[in-house]
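WARN retry 2 of 3 for item q-0093 after timeout on previous attempt; input resubmitted unchanged.
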Amino acid sequence: MATPTLPPTVDAPVEQVDAAARYVEAFEMHDGTLLNGTNARLQGLRREAIERFEALGFPHRKAEAWKYTNITRTINRGYDLFLGQPEPDVTDADVAAERIPELDAHTVVLVNGRFDSERSTIGELPEGVRILPLAKAVEAEAELFDQHFAQYASFEDEVFTALNTAFVHDGVFVYVPERVALETPLHVINLVAADDDLLVQPRLLIVVEDGAQFKMVQTARSLGDGKTFTNVVTEAYVGRGAHVDIYEVQEDDAQASQVTTLQAHQKDDSVFRTSAFTFGGDVIRNNLNILPNGNHCESHLYGLFLGHGTTHIDSHTFVDHAQPDCFSNELYKGILDDQSTGVFNGKVLVRQDAQRINAYQSNKSIVLTETAQMYSKPELEIYADDVQCSHGATSGQLDDEGIFYLRSRGLSEERARAIMLMAFARDVVDTINIEPLRELVDQKLTARFRR
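OK item q-0093 returned
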């Protein structure tokens, strides 16, 4: 079967093309090739999602949440949808290059959004733990799948979540039962292999039951000459007293764009931590939504983004404090060089009955050139009266006095700048509690700052 392709739009200006209609047409043409199995609920969800997608349309810059990011120009290409079964050109060496040195991990390899069982090395798991292709979990874990899939990542107002849900085909399903600690982290390697323009939409569903522990690292790489767009949605259920850490490392070339959506749903006394490290790409939009839907939850959100060339990096976060006695801490830092653009739009909502909330939000950025740009919009929306909440944003250049001080101690200007930039990034890097990953991020930062 030939790979289904969206009609190209080169003969008409982007502004005059209804991009969303092209995806709806592709859905109707290839509905039978998408993931359904015998799951009637999934069939219904996919239909609801494409209808909602059609109603929403792709966001434009008049929409407040997309004010600084023109995603339409990126998404409106004649992408292959990879709904058939072509053989992508991926080798064992490609997979090996993405493994993290010295990291002992259960490894899942996704190739163009599909679970590659031959190249994945999951190994032995504790009793009751399951890591398997999402396409198999639809039937093999039908009860859990129906209980959790599309329950947290709503597509009512999120067009890319609607698009992912409509075209869901494969991805990763993780289940960690009560009071089980998965000590060895899961490493998900997402490879996109294309010589032509390609859109892939993997889906991750993570269910961590009461008192359990789980860590995951996601890395991605595009192979080939085509322009790629990855629209990935991750849903994480964090049970009572559970601890979940999710790390993402994004480093790709100027041909690769991503929209990532991570939705976490927390129960009482749970701890959720997530860190995103963005080193490259074309247009990157990271959506992070946290719902601490229980008492005494902890939510920690960290991000570090480095822009160079014409990279555009947009971090959009939302913490919805719906229950009392919870704590959230958010720290995002950016370093922007050349003609790159950074965006931070973070919102903390404290609902009326969510008393005794401690919520902190901070965004700090360094702009290294006159042509780089940073847009920051931290927000607090508070309806409770017994809270401790703060937010802040700063953007500036490297401290000339600091550079002068280091140079007066015999350091070159390049070395002085590298030391100051490393120090600026340090408090985000130090949040990584997987040592091989922290060393890898350190190496990437050192290589970048010493160019």
